[in-house]
Amino acid sequence: MNYPNFVKIIDVGARDGLQNEKQTVPSDVKIELINGLIDAGVRKLEATSFVSPKWVPQMADNDTVLNGIVKRDDVVYSVLTPNMKGFDAALAHRDQFANYEVVIFGSASEAFSQKNINCSIAESIERFAPVADAAKAHGIKVRGVISCTVGCPYEGDISPDKVAYVTEKLVAIGAQHIGIADTIGVGTPIKVQKALDAALRYIDIDNISGHFHDTYGQALSNTLAALQMGVWQFDTSVAGLGGCPYAKGATGSVATEDVVYLLHGMGIETGIDLDKLVDVGQKISAFLGRQDGSKVATAILNKRKSLTVS
């Protein structure tokens, strides 16, 4: 296999990972999380979102978070902007960052689109079009992410043709990058490869990423399957934070620590310090009062304990 020599990790823990937490996560905890990820070597991350606090109260402190985090020219800071109101609010921070990106989320499932953003797929594209136009006018990159690309909690299996359709529409309105998301974690390697193949009809391999949830324990297998196709960018979530509120039992994106361990074991560079990353994941997990969702982190932490005892 001609695996890539380098993989770019896009950590989504601070946004996708925390947005559905029932307990309020203070701004200073989010800022510490983001700064810790950057210190560990993460060079692209989702920082926050500009959505109505009525729907996502956890992200109501977007201004505070963006004002408080460390700014580095070699880091790409992504923010979710589902509509023009969100984009206008996000635009106020444009000059703070050398690399600033807005994210729009579509779906390959009509039912999921209705449940998640209260509109059809076609209507969602119409809603995103002015956001993409405005971003282009201000020199801001647009990343499009497609949810439920292999399975949906309401429709079941999703046809690759639907993935191709949404990819084509997002690229047509100005999305420069497409993320292929297995939102509820039901995908297996061949299904994921078919979804990626469908998207690749309309987007180059260098502008596509995989976003795999680990509900059925398949996320690392799916990551490897995508690597075999030449995909070299992946959304991951520190400590496996996250989940989907519209899919009962769905877990978060694959843990960043687990993907980094896999890649380093394959001789693929990420620029990330795994030990530092484990510390970041353990700290946010402790704050949330739960077990770290990364198997690699758990193993490393147990090893540290045994060495301390001995």
UniProtKB/TrEMBL annotation:
Keyword line: Lyase, Metal-binding
- What range(s) does the Pyruvate carboxyltransferase domain occupy? 7-278
MF annotations from Gene Ontology? hydroxymethylglutaryl-CoA lyase activity; metal ion binding
Q: Which residues form a coiled coil?
A: none
Write the Enzyme Commission number(s) for this entry: 4.1.3.4
Q: Does the keyword Metal-binding apply?
A: yes
* Pathway named in the protein's UniProt entry: Metabolic intermediate metabolism; (S)-3-hydroxy-3-methylglutaryl-CoA degradation; acetoacetate from (S)-3-hydroxy-3-methylglutaryl-CoA: step 1/1
Entry-linked SUPFAM superfamilies = Aldolase
GO annotation terms (biological process)? ketone body biosynthetic process; L-leucine catabolic process
One Pfam family in the UniProt entry: HMGL-like
Which PANTHER family does the UniProt entry name for this protein? HYDROXYMETHYLGLUTARYL-COA LYASE (PTHR42738)
Family indicated by similarity: Belongs to the HMG-CoA lyase family.
| Name of this protein | hydroxymethylglutaryl-CoA lyase
Organism name: Faucicola osloensis
